UniProtKB/TrEMBL annotation:
Domain Tr-type G: 20-289
Entry's Gene Ontology cellular component terms: cytosol
InterPro entries assigned: EF-G-like_DII, EFG_III/V, G_TR_CS, P-loop_NTPase, PrfC, RF3_C, RF3_dom_3_sf, Small_GTP-bd
NCBIfam families tied to this protein: prfC, PRK00741.1, small_GTP
Molecular function terms from GO: GTP binding; GTPase activity; translation release factor activity, codon nonspecific; translation release factor activity, codon specific
Protein name according to UniProt: Peptide chain release factor 3
Record keywords: Cytoplasm, GTP-binding, Nucleotide-binding, Protein biosynthesis
Localization in the cell: Cytoplasm
PROSITE patterns registered for this protein in UniProt: G_TR_1, G_TR_2
Function: Increases the formation of ribosomal termination complexes and stimulates activities of RF-1 and RF-2. It binds guanine nucleotides and has strong preference for UGA stop codons. It may interact directly with the ribosome. The stimulation of RF-1 and RF-2 is significantly reduced by GTP and GDP, but not by GMP.
UniProt family annotation: Belongs to the TRAFAC class translation factor GTPase superfamily. Classic translation factor GTPase family. PrfC subfamily.
Organism: Solirubrobacter ginsenosidimutans
Length: 537
């Protein structure tokens, strides 16, 4: 055998080994459930940061597209990116950011296309909030393995059995508690680790800055009388759970059919180490991902990656665009030339940067499961596949059907070009739907989004990045479904006040003033295609 194939094999083996030790995940939650705090504490437990910063008052904080901006401000580190990568116990974690606010759930949906697992973070008092249910439904539909972490158990909240009930009802999947709280909400002492029936008794540290001292007990009498009493109550509850609940089943979890459940307090650092350990031990590594013909692409195939986010001008000093790619196979090398499967054009991934901890520290190589930001010029869009070797396409990323619409017009005729360039940019990023009316040649574009805050961001960006002064006007539509050309004709003919918009890619969106009109239309027209997600098939 010649030397070349041997090198190739050694390389392939290395890619397989690296893929095996990747854990790529996101935390999805409602704002204020504690995602920023938990992120920071996971970094603390992984040894990626020293002391956790003291949590400062953030009342009146405006919802941002990234909660990490807050983390960045608080810790004085640069986390302007989409991914935090840290290594612990031989495992490389890629934690992807998701904005908490409902108006940015589109971003979360795209992140879900890039992760192998998601942690559902729930506030112990508020439970799963309706705004985030849609995301859980999407995650479930995609079969992503899900873990649930009930946070803020140090404060009064639902009893654990009530919480289990509530989660089972709202998430519509069986939950398997891996840990169980000891001590009532508000007098939280620690958790039972059900895998070995030990009681992890935690002590608070001042301000939650350091790792919480922990005693692991396996029999009564090792702690104080109150510990014993609280432990006994927790065990009684667990007997009930055992009778009616489901035991943890690794395969069911990996298929996304059962949710392991953990309890804790991110602020006090209770249960955070256990959560990190569970992600390390149970969450899947980077596995072969199916191409659009359904064939799984082995991780040691030549390089291929999915673009799941395009962000413009992240750094005002470098007016560039960054594409965030999830590597699905092969080894990423800085400077490598790849082909975009949609356009057939080649491009150099000339500069990759990892933004955690440092400013634009360059990254020389990355492996399946990793997410990297590459600076791009030219036509690269969300959903594009970049590859070397023979052509591969990964399936399109579905988008949520918008529920809010505005017309957008340019106030300054002299900046017509900038206006259109800006709209094209927003459309390419996939952040907002740029639409036009289907039934006439009305030139005024329409923007569609999940919530009004997206429009504010769009208007601001058109102004600051493209110098376009725009005017928006809210349209009266609050429900929409994807339909086809035939469906569009039926919708336009309907006596109810409805309209149809078309996206650049030809997708038709039927819009309705509210859910009731939509449902009535659906009942009257059972044969008309009305889908919740765009590009879901
Ligand atoms: P988010 O990113 O999901 O929006 O949540 P974030 O971490 O910013 O936390 C929201 C609030 O919840 C913060 O309080 C934070 O301190 C608090 N928090 C997070 N985890 C826990 C927990 O385990 N227990 C308790 N009791 N609180 C927790 P805040 O009022 O916004 O700020 P501050 O007054 O605490 O500084």
């Amino acid at each position: 055998m010649s030397a070349l194939p041997v090198i190739a094999t050694a390389d392939a083996r290395r890619v397989v080994e690296e893929a095996k030790r990747r854990r790529t995940f996101a935390i999805i939650s409602h704002p204020d459930a504690g995602k920023t705090t938990l992120t920071e504490k996971l970094l603390l437990y992984a040894g990626a940061v020293g002391e956790a910063g003291s949590v400062t008052a953030r009342k009146g904080r405006k919802a941002a597209t990234s909660d990490w901006m807050e983390l960045e401000r608080r810790r004085g580190i640069s986390v302007t990116s989409t991914v935090l990568r840290f290594e612990h116990d031989g495992v490389v974690f890629n934690l992807l950011d998701t904005p908490g606010h409902k108006d940015f759930s589109e971003d979360t949906l795209r992140v879900l296309a890039a992760v192998d697992c998601a942690v559902i973070l729930v506030d112990a008092a508020r439970g799963v909030e309706p705004q985030t249910e849609q995301l859980f439904r999407v995650a479930r539909a995609r079969g992503i393995p899900l873990l649930a972490f009930v946070n803020k158990y140090d404060r009064p909240g639902l009893e654990p059995l009530e919480m289990l009930d509530h989660l089972t009802d709202t998430l519509e999947l069986p939950l398997a508690p891996l840990t169980w709280p000891v001590g009532i909400p508000g007098a939280f002492r620690g958790v039972i680790d059900r895998r070995d029936d030990t009681f992890h008794r935690f002590e608070r540290t001042t301000g939650g800055a350091g790792i919480a001292p922990e005693r692991i007990m396996n029999a009564r009498g090792q702690g104080d009388a109150e510990d014993d009493a609280a432990w006994a109550v927790a065990e009684e509850e667990l007997e009930l759970v055992d009778e009616v609940g489901s035991a943890f089943d690794l395969d069911a979890f990996l298929r996304g059919e059962q949710i392991p459940l953990l309890f804790g307090s991110a602020a006090w650092n209770f249960g955070v180490g256990l959560l990190l350990g569970v992600i390390r031990d149970l969450a899947p590594p980077a596995l072969p991902r199916p191409a659009d013909d359904g064939t799984p692409r082995p991780v040691d195939d030549p390089f291929a990656a999915l673009v799941f986010k395009v962000q413009a001008n992240m750094d005002p000093r470098h007016r560039d665009r960054v594409a965030f790619i999830r590597i699905n196979s092969g080894r990423f090398e800085r400077g490598m030339r790849v082909t975009n499967a949609r356009t057939g054009r080649t491009l150099a991934l000339s500069f990759a940067h990892e933004v955690f901890g440092q400013d634009r520290s360059s990254l020389d190589e990355a492996f399946p499961g990793d997410v990297v930001g590459v600076v791009i010029g030219g036509d690269v869009r969300v959903g594009d596949t970049l590859f070397i070797g023979s052509t591969v396409h990964f399936p399109p990323i579905p988008t949520l059907t918008p529920e809010s619409f505005v017309t957008i017009s340019n106030r300054d005729v002299g900046r017509h070009k900038q206006f259109h360039r800006g709209l094209e940019q927003l459309d390419q990023e996939g952040v907002i739907h740029v639409l036009r009316r289907a039934h006439n040649q009305d030139p005024v574009p329409v923007l569609g989004g999940v919530g009004p805050m997206q429009f504010e961001v769009a208007v601001e960006r058109l102004k600051t990045e493209f110098g376009a002064d725009v005017h928006t006007q809210m349209l009266p539509w609050a429900a929409a479904r994807r339909t086809d050309a035939e469906g569009a004709i039926k919708v336009l003919a309907d006596p109810g006040a409805t309209d149809v918009f078309v996206r650049g890619d030809g997708t038709h969106l039927a819009v309705f003033p509210n859910r009731f009109v939509l449902e009535r239309f659906a009942q009257r027209n059972p044969n008309v295609q009305l889908d919740r997600l765009i590009g879901a098939d």
